[in-house]
Amino acid sequence: MTASPAAVDAAGWFAPEQLPMLPQRLVEHLLSLTGAPEVLISIAGIAASAGTVLLVFSSAFALLSLIERKVLARAQNRIGPNRAGWFGLLQPLADGIKMLTKEDVVPDKAEKFLHFLAPVLIVLPAILALGVLPYGRDWTPLPLEAGLLFFFAIGALTELSVFIAGWASGSKFPMLGAMRAISQMVSYELPLILSALGVVMVSGTLSLQEIAAQQSGFHFGFIPAWNLFTPWGLVAGLLFFICSIAEANRSPFDLPEGESEIVAGHMTEYSGFKYALFFMGEYLGLFAIAGLGITLFLGGWQPPVPGLAYVPSWVWFAAKISVVIFLYLWIRASFPRLRIDQLMRFAWLCMIPMALLTLPAAAIWHFTGRGAFSWLVTLPLLLVPWIILGNVFNRRLAPGRRRYRFADG
C-alpha cells in the first residue's frame, strides 16, 4: 500500500530544506481545501512567506541590538547589558517596553502628519527589500525577474524619508542633519550601484535567484565559484561592502546620527516608539544590504565547502549574513568616525573611480574566457589605479606640519 501524493507532499514540507516555506504551504493548502480562487491562494502564500521573513528579521533586530552592545563592550573592556534577565538577555524586551511607554513629544512647528509618516517610511523600504532576497535554493518570498532593480529602486525611499524627518520637524538641527545624511547616502549610492553592475554584466540577468544559482560549483575542486573570487569581483565586492556601511549609516560613516556634532541628526525631534522605528529601519536595512552583498558576491545560499550540499541552503545564507554582520560590528568597535569632508572626498575621489573601473574589468573577464589570461589582463587594470588613487587620496588627507605658536612676553 503506497501513500497518497498529498501525504507525500505533506511529509516533504517538514524536510530541513523546506522548513522556511512551511507557513506558506500551510496557508495555501488550507485555502485550497476551502475552494478559494488561485489568485487568492497565490497572494495569501506570498503574504505568509513575507510574514515569515518579517518575523525572523524583527526577532533578529532585537537580538542584534543586544549582540552589538555585548560585542562593543567586549572590545572596550566593559561588561555591557547584564541587568535585564540572565546575562542581559531580556534587555531588548526592556528597551521595547521603555520606548512604548515614553511620551511622544511633537514640536509645535512640526508638520504633524509628515512627522508621523517619516519613521514608517524608513522601515517600509527595508521590509520590501528583504522580500526579494533568495534565502535558499527554493525559497524567495517575492521572486521577481528584476529583483536587483526593485531592491535599488525601493531603497531610494530611504533618502526621501530622511529628508521628510528633517524637514517636518520644524527645527534647524534636524534639517541640517537630514541634508548631511542625504549628501552622504546619495554619494555612496553611486559606487554601490556601479559595483553591482559588474555582476549584472557577467551574469546577464537582474534576477537575484539566477545570480545566486550561477555561482554554484568549485574551481580546482575546492575554490567556490563565487564572484568574489575573481579580480573584478574582489574589488567590486570590497567597494560594495564599504558603501553598504555608509548606506546603513554605520560607523565610521555614521555622520547622520553624529551626536557629538549635530545632536542626533534628522532624529533630533523624535522620541518614544517613533525614535525606535528609525533604529529598526536601520537594522533591517543592514540585514537587507548584507543579504544583497552575499547574493551578489558570496554565492548567496551556495555552500562554501565541497561535500556539504546536504546542509539546508538557508542555513548557509544565515551563516554568511551572521559573519558579515559581525564584520560591521567589529569595524564599529575599531575605527573612529570620519569628518564630513573626509567622507565625501573618499566617495568622489576613490570609490566612484574604482567602481567605474570594475565595469570594463568585468567585461574583459567575461569576453576573454574567465581563465588565466583573464586574470593576467584584469588584475593590472584594477591594481594599478587602486595604488595610484590610494597614494593620491592619502596625500590629500595627510595632515600638514603642525606649528605651535605661543604668545610673546
Plain-language structure description:
The protein is an all-alpha fold and 409 residues long. It has one domain. The chain is built from 15 helices and 2 strands. Strands 1-2 form a two-stranded antiparallel ribbon. Strand 1 and strand 2 form a beta hairpin. Helix 5 (112-130) runs antiparallel to helix 6. The longest helix is centred in the first third of the chain and has 38 residues, at 38-75. The protein is globular. The model is unreliable at 1-8 (pLDDT under 50).
Instruction: Figure out the total of helices.
Output: 15
Tertiary shape: globular
SSE ordering? HHHHHHHHHEEHHHHHH
> What class do helices, strands and sheet pairing give?
mainly alpha
Contiguous runs where pLDDT drops below 50 for at least 5 residues: 1-8
- Order the strands across the largest sheet as they lie in space: 1-2
Largest sheet, in brief, is:
2 strands, antiparallel
The total count of strands amounts to 2
Number of domains: 1
Strand content: under 5%
Summarize the structure.
This protein is an all-alpha fold and 409 residues long. The protein has 15 helices and two strands. It has one domain (102-391).
Question: Would you spell out the secondary-structure blueprint of this structure?
Answer:
Layout: H1 5-13, H2 22-33, H3 38-75, H4 91-101, H5 112-130, H6 147-155, H7 157-168, H8 172-203, H9 208-213, E1 218-219, E2 223-224, H10 231-247, H11 259-262, H12 272-297, H13 313-334, H14 340-367, H15 372-397
Antiparallel strand pairs: 1-2
